[in-house]
Amino acid sequence: PAGWTRGVAVHESFGSVVAQIAEVQLVDGQPKVGRVVTAVDCGVAIAPDQIASQMEGGICYGLSAALFGKVTLKDGVVEQTNFDTYRVLRNSEAPTVETYIVPSGNAPSGVGEPGTPVIAPAVANAILALNGQATTSLPMVKA
Questions:
Q1: Which backbone phi and psi does 51 adopt, to 5 degrees?
Q2: Is residue 143 pLDDT above 80, yes or no?
Q3: Which stretches of 14-122 are assigned E, i.e. beta strand?
Q4: Which of 39, 78, 138, 140 has a Cα at 20 to 30 A from 123?
Q5: Nearest to residue 143, comparing CAs of 88, 93, 96, 92?
Q6: Is the whole-model pTM more than 0.85?
Q7: What is the separation, in whole angstroms, between the first and last Cα of the chain?
C-alpha cells in the first residue's frame, strides 16, 4: 500500500544464512514494521515449527533493540533497571512474520541467534528507500 516500502538484509552466523525483507512505513517520522518475510537455510530442518518460532522471537528481539534499545548512565550507574524504564517491543507492535525454511541436505545448524541481527539493517534499508536518509544511529525511535 501507499506509504509502505521494503528493505532487505542477509546475514550468516552459526552455520545458517538468514534473509529478511521488512515492510516499513513512517508514522510521525518513526518506523513501524508491519510484516517481515524471512528465509533461513539452516541445513536439515529437524523441527520446522521450532525454527519458525526461533526466527519470530529473534526478529522481535532484534527489532526491540533496533527501535528502542537505549541504555543511559547517570553517575556511572545504568538508569534502566526493568521494563518500566527500558522500552521493548510490545505485542501490539510486533510485525507479522512469515518464515520460509530453505530445503537443504546440509548438516543442521544454528537457529537461536541468526534471526536477530538481520532485522535492523532490513528496517534501515526500508527507511532509506522511504526518505532517502541513511540510518546512522540506534535506537531508530527517538524518545
A1: -60, -45
A2: no
A3: 16-27, 30-41, 73-74, 77-78, 96-101
A4: 78
A5: 88
A6: yes
A7: 27
